[in-house]
Write a structure and sequence with these properties.
By secondary structure, the protein is α/β, with parallel strands linked by helices. The protein has one domain (2-248): TIM Barrel (Alpha-Beta Barrel). The chain contains 11 helices and 12 strands. The protein has helices at 32-41, 52-55, 62-70, 85-94, 103-107, 111-128, 153-162, 184-193, 208-212, 226-229, 235-248, and strands at 2-10, 13-18, 21-27, 46-51, 75-79, 98-101, 129-136, 139-142, 147-152, 167-172, 198-202, 221-224. An 8-stranded parallel β-barrel has the order 1-4-5-6-7-10-11-12, surrounded by 6 helices. β5 (75-79), α4 and β6 form a beta-alpha-beta unit. It starts with a strand and ends with a helix.
Length: 249
């Protein structure tokens, strides 16, 4: 299991939300460029960038984020406001390693089939696209976690699998940004349902011990944000963990 540092952007600032609530924002006195450089200089290869404005349909950040992404050699997984097939193609063309799709995949029944057919085909979908399943009490949320989907969680996973999408980013909204432990039971439930999926976890990590508690759960990687910014987990700890993970692999 690999640790992926997360950077959330709101109004061009590095922030974290608590429980997905846009009214509970913590701002950090660091720029996106500085955060990426810090991770890169400490040997981290992957990083996640989420445009929180874009997640709500406000695309004022996208040119700013795109310019930063073009300047880095880091492998970026990017999400927030990916609303069209054209946007996916644009991000791939920019060199984004993987694109996270969420709202459009849930609200537009033609989006994933078209994406599978026109962009990645079933053989490559999981290498280029991550399907976000943001969950609160096993209810899928979308549109910046502001709306609820009537689609049952496991039914949605099965539909994605049928179209060739095997990589998922599962965030437990109730734990995200709260530093109160991970959604281990939820991840186990998803993997019991579909043992062969590539599952990325997110939300709730307070210290490196929380990551250790996930050993035995076959997660591909885990996204960590607030714990890094607040010094609960050091970049050196992430670097050592990821080196050991690569050696074990």
């Amino acid at each position: 299991m690999y640790i992926i540092p997360a950077i959330d952007i709101l109004d061009k600032k590095v922030v974290r939300l608590s429980g997905g609530d846009y009214q509970k924002v913590t701002n950090y006195d660091v720029t996106l460029e500085e955060m990426i450089q810090n991770f890169q200089s400490n040997g981290t290869n992957y990083i996640q960038i989420i445009d929180l404005n874009g997640a709500k349909g406000d695309f004022s950040n996208q040119h700013f984020i795109a310019d930063v992404i073009k300047k880095t050699e880091m492998k970026i997984q990017y999400g927030g406001g990916v609303r069209s097939i054209e946007k996916v193609k644009e991000l791939i063309g920019m060199g984004v390693h993987r694109i996270i799709v969420g709202t459009q995949a849930i609200t537009n029944p033609d989006f994933l089939p078209t994406l599978s057919e026109e962009v990645c085909d079933k053989e490559k979908c999981s290498d280029q696209v991550i399907v976000a399943i943001d969950v609160l009490d096993e209810v899928i949320k979308y549109a910046g976690w502001l709306e609820s989907s009537p689609i049952k969680l496991m039914d949605y996973v099965d539909r994605c699998l049928s179209l060739g999408f095997f990589r998922f980013l599962c965030t437990d909204i109730g734990k995200d940004g709260k530093l109160q432990g991970t959604a281990k039971a939820l991840y186990k439930k998803l993997l019991d349902h579909s043992p062969f999926i590539k599952l990325i976890g997110g939300g709730g990590v307070n210290t490196i011990e929380d990551i250790k508690q996930l050993e035995g759960v076959e997660l591909e990687s885990f996204v960590v944000g607030r714990a890094i910014y607040e010094g609960k987990i050091t970049i050196e700890e992430i670097q050592n963990w990821n080196l050991n993970a690569l050696i074990s692999f």
